[in-house]
Design brief:
Length: about 300
């Protein structure tokens, strides 16, 4: 069977694209290697999505998935290994068990947490190093942890961790946060959060698990050890766009370049969400991407049929 639209990735952008494509009566499939929801499903609280009451990221994406399915979108667990084109000009999405053929493809693979790249990070993953407070925060009840980063995600997750831990150190390389003001205000108001300004983590230390961070103050140049039981790292995201490389232009950071209609340099191949090159990464923006990508895919399918 040949699909009209194959959407690779089941986060907000992918699920929105599935909703619009299936609602347009296109034969639509979402290929997701783990489970629908993407990174946002791991977020404790979404409070800035227009028209939706405060809820968890998991709850929001469950609603999105349900809507897409109601219009006929097919959602399958599928690990994509390669994207190619056949002699008929159709896209072939190659998986570990089968190959899916489609007239168009929407790349909505999102992005994965960026690592610090310091000594001890890889060795202590799942033994004190984490990239998800919602996943692992409860393991640190009444303990001391650190959060590395100063953006929205870092500060929001630091606030979330105060539900469990005794103390949260927020380590930021500058002396001012990048998070929006309302998020900053919550962090500054918490008695459990302490900020370590103008500092970077140079090493993660421990025996069987994390016991301390070696930190260097950028102004003084002096280093010191900060005893912690765990560290949560939020220093940005790396886009998951490598599998599309033969067909798309990538920025120097690996994001997919599109035109205003979400089209890549390859006709019929669109990109949406966090994998796409843009200046703002928010759920509402990803949803807008997914909407436009699906509508443009419908137009493309109509033109080639």
């Amino acid at each position: 069977m040949t699909y009209d639209v194959a959407i690779i990735g089941g986060g907000p952008a992918g699920l929105t694209a599935a909703l619009y494509a299936s609602r347009s009566r296109l034969r639509t499939v979402v290929l997701e290697k783990i489970s629908p929801g993407g990174q946002i499903a791991l977020t404790d609280c979404i409070e800035n999505y227009p028209g939706v009451p405060k809820m968890s990221g998991y709850e929001l994406t469950q609603v999105m998935e349900k809507q897409a399915k109601e219009f006929g979108a097919e959602i399958r667990l599928f690990e994509v290994l390669e994207l190619r084109k056949n002699q008929k000009g159709l896209f072939e999405v190659v998986g570990d068990r089968e190959t899916v053929t489609s007239k168009t493809v929407i790349a909505a693979t999102g992005a994965a947490p960026r690592k610090l790249g310091v000594e001890g990070e890889e060795a202590f993953i799942s033994r004190g190093v984490s990239y998800c407070a919602v996943c692992d925060g409860a393991f640190y009840k009444n303990k001391t942890v650190a959060v590395v980063g100063g953006g929205n995600t870092a500060v929001e997750e630091a606030v979330y961790l105060t539900k469990f831990v005794r103390r949260v150190y927020v380590i930021h390389r500058r002396d001012v946060l990048r998070a929006v003001k309302i998020v900053q205000e919550r962090a500054f108001a918490s008695e459990k959060i302490e900020f370590v300004w103008n500092s970077i983590v140079e090493k993660i230390k421990g025996q069987d698990k994390v016991s301390a961070l070696e930190i260097r103050n950028k102004e003084s140049g002096k280093s010191f050890d900060l005893p912690v039981d765990g560290v949560f790292i939020y220093v940005g995201m790396n886009p998951a766009g490598d599998i599309f490389q033969p067909f798309v232009e990538l920025t120097d950071k690996g994001f997919i370049v599109t035109d205003k209609n979400m089209m890549t340099r390859t006709p019929g191949l669109f990109a949406a969400g966090d994998v796409r090159d843009k200046t703002v990464w928010q759920v509402s923006v990803a949803v807008g991407d997914g909407t436009l990508a699906a509508l443009m895919a419908e137009k493309y399918v109509t033109e080639i049929t």
